[in-house]
Design a protein that fits this description.
Blueprint: H1 2-23, E1 36-40, H2 46-55, E2 61-65, H3 73-76, H4 82-88, E3 89-92, H5 98-111, E4 116-122, H6 126-136, E5 141-147, H7 161-183, H8 193-206
Parallel strand pairs: 1-2, 1-4, 2-3, 4-5
Helix pairs in contact: 5-6, 5-8, 6-7
């Protein structure tokens, strides 16, 4: 039993090192245009980067998934052209975690017949997010576009208690999501695409400037 415990600890540690290295990788296709940009809420710098990419012409539309109830588009604007929000930004309020972000984005993509997206999220969150989004949209073209918050010291993560705890926590969530996908347990009931998309679209178009 001791040998098994040590072996599992070594495997987990090796996996954590791989995960941390992966979390520090930048986008491999910075100039590739996609039809959409998707930004899950929950980390600093994500929305700003998504808007910057939209302004640069790398996509037709931006979808922010997992917006908290009661938050309007006017509260999210950050020094960007209001006309950009009016024409090209939509908010989704249905998702509460990464798996639900992927499903909400898949519904939005299907409603608009989009087949490619650039996923903008934190580097430490990207491995799990890409796994969930690929599962929700297996035929779509996905481009990973990580952002790196200044307070998360990915390069020397083991030296910083907060970053190490964050990386370890996210790695554990990644393993759980991988097990759920591989073994097929805990799968979510999907909301019909038309119903989910209609609600997201109706909310976003009802907000000022959105």
């Amino acid at each position: 039993m001791l040998v098994a415990v040590v072996a599992l600890a070594l495997l987990w540690s090796g996996g954590l090192a791989w995960f941390a290295d992966t979390a520090g990788e930048g986008t491999q296709q910075p100039d590739l245009a996609t039809q959409a940009i998707v930004v899950p809420t929950g980390g600093s710098g994500r929305l700003e980067e998504g808007l910057r990419l939209l302004e640069s012409g790398l996509a037709q539309a931006l979808f922010v998934t997992g917006v908290a109830e009661g938050v309007e588009s006017a509260e999210l604007r950050v020094r960007h052209d209001p006309a950009l929000w009016a024409c090209c930004v939509e908010l989704g309020y249905e998702a509460e975690d990464t798996a639900a972000n992927a499903q909400e984005a898949a519904a939005w993509m299907a409603d608009r017949t989009f087949t490619s997206l650039r996923l903008v999220t934190s580097g430490y969150h990207m491995p799990r997010a890409m796994m969930e989004f690929r599962s929700a949209m297996p035929s779509a073209t996905l481009v990973a576009h990580p952002v790196f918050p200044e307070h998360v010291k990915v390069e020397h993560w083991w030296r910083y208690r907060g970053t190490a705890a964050l990386i370890a926590s996210e790695f554990t969530k990644y393993l759980w999501a991988l097990a759920r996908r591989t073994l097929g347990f805990g799968k979510r009931r999907r909301t019909p695409l038309g119903t989910r998309s209609a609600r997201c679209s109706a909310r976003s178009h009802s907000t000022p400037g959105g």
